[in-house]
Specification:
nine-stranded mixed β-sheet; Pseudouridine synthase; four-stranded antiparallel β-sheet; about 30% strand; about 240 residues
């Protein structure tokens, strides 16, 4: 999903179902306002979160929404599912409209999930070329050692997809516990990387995406809005 911007005359033509030529008198008369300011330039770019008014008619007043959720185990990272609770089901109903996920967690994993209605913002987080690190904590069935650290740093070959993962960071916290940082998020990637090392992930918990850390005051299933600083600095 992307956030689309249009020329003002194109947006108004579609919204009012009139020709672009017929908009000129409205613009000249100062009847068009964008974010409270009178606009005369028909070529001005407008986006989905601009407030747009023509005379007394409000055409658009959509607000950007950015949420973090502490995902519990047994919840699907999706906006709808016929059989299971989804992360969207855990969001207050008045905030759900147009939300999508900026990165998923598998059914049994827990921790930070980000949701937004801003497609440009979410795209920069999910695309590996932007270099945003995701931080996870894992507990394991067998002990980890320095050979695992080296294997993660070198990248691992997934023959079925004919690809090699990007280098990942692995920090050993205890004999059966470690932190992992990834710049990508392929299907069950961490579980599969440990499986290649002959180990099994018992629990997987996402602690951070970029500079945004999971709020420790959020109980499983709870969410809150991101702060302005979190929104702007997440991919710095």
């Amino acid at each position: 999903m992307t956030t689309r911007y249009f020329r003002l005359d194109r947006y108004l033509s579609q919204a009012l179902q009139v020709s672009r030529h017929s908009l000129r008198p409205l613009l000249a008369a100062g009847q068009v306002r964008v974010n409270g300011e009178v606009v005369h330039d028909r070529q001005q770019r407008v986006g989905p979160f601009d407030r747009i008014e023509v005379g007394e008619q409000l055409l658009q007043a959509r607000k950007a929404c950015y949420l973090m959720l502490n995902k519990p185990a047994g919840v699907v990272s999706a906006t709808s599912d016929e059989h299971h609770t989804t992360v969207l089901d855990l969001v207050p109903e008045e905030l759900r409209e147009d939300l999508h996920l900026a990165g998923r967690l598998d059914f049994n994993s827990t921790g930070l999930v980000l949701m937004t209605n801003d497609g440009v913002w979410s795209k920069q987080l999910s695309h590996p070329d932007t270099g945003v690190w995701k931080h996870y904590r894992v507990t394991l069935e067998s002990a980890v050692d320095q050979s695992d650290v080296s294997a993660f740093a070198a990248g691992m070959r997934f023959a079925f997809e004919d690809l090699t993962t990007r280098p990942a960071r692995l920090e050993i916290l205890g004999s059966h516990e470690a932190d992992v940082w990834l710049q990508e998020g392929r299907y069950h990637q961490i579980r599969r990387m440990f499986a290649q090392r002959g180990n099994k992930v018992k629990t997987l918990h996402r602690l951070a995406v970029g500079n945004v850390q999971l709020d420790r005051t959020l109980a499983p299933g709870e969410c809150r809005a991101l702060t302005e600083h979190e929104i702007s600095s997440i991919a710095d």
